[in-house]
């Protein structure tokens, strides 16, 4: 299986690492799952995920562990973050604002509560600018 683009992995990792401390805690995993799906992992599901990913048994997921997980267990075609970003960027100005994000999400499932959309956009908008850009570091 081909390795994922490093920038895409960093971006995806940062979506989970909501407090930006460089690791993904179990509570951060739970928050992202809830924001994205509206449901939460059962304790046994979270434990199974941690057993698979947390190879140093620290209780958290490091960038290296995350990269290994993605490269070994997730096919590259399923990521496509750049292509996904471009779909959300309705006006093609290089950034996705909250309205664009909400517009696309509502076309997928109009039953998603506004609170969930607000939570997810707050996770993405790290500098409170009102929009998210796709930039290479």
Report on this structure.
With 137 residues, the chain is mainly alpha-helical. The chain is built from seven helices and four strands; from the N terminus they run αβααβααβααβ. Strands 1-2 form a two-stranded antiparallel ribbon. Helix 2 crosses helix 7. 11% of the residues are buried. Keywords: Calcium, Repeat. It holds the Pfam family EF-hand_7. GO terms for molecular function: calcium ion binding. This is EF-hand domain-containing protein.
Short description:
This protein is mainly alpha-helical.
> What percent of the residues sit in helical stretches (DSSP H or I)?
40-55%
Question: What's the total count of β strands?
Answer: 4
Helix/strand order, N-terminal first = HEHHEHHEHHE
Distance between the termini: 24 Å
Task: Present the secondary structure layout.
Blueprint: H1 6-16, E1 23-24, H2 26-37, H3 43-53, E2 61-62, H4 63-73, H5 81-88, E3 95-97, H6 98-108, H7 114-124, E4 131-133
Antiparallel strand pairs: 1-2, 3-4
Write out key terms for the chains shown:
137 residues; mainly alpha; two-stranded antiparallel sheet; 7 helices; 55% helix; 7% strand
């Amino acid at each position: 299986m081909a390795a994922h683009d490093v920038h895409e992995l960093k971006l995806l990792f940062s979506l989970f690492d909501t407090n930006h401390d460089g690791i993904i805690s179990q509570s951060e995993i739970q928050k992202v799952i809830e924001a994205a799906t509206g449901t939460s992992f059962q304790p046994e599901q979270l434990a199974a995920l941690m057993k698979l990913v947390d190879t140093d048994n620290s209780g958290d997921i490091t960038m290296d562990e995350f990269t290994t997980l993605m490269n070994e267990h997730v096919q590259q075609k399923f990521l496509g973050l750049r292509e996904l970003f471009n779909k959300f960027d309705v006006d093609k100005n290089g950034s996705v604002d909250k309205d664009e994000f909400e517009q696309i999400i509502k076309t997928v499932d109009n039953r998603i509560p506004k609170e969930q959309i607000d939570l997810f956009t707050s996770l993405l908008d790290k500098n409170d600018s009102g929009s998210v850009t796709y930039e290479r570091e």
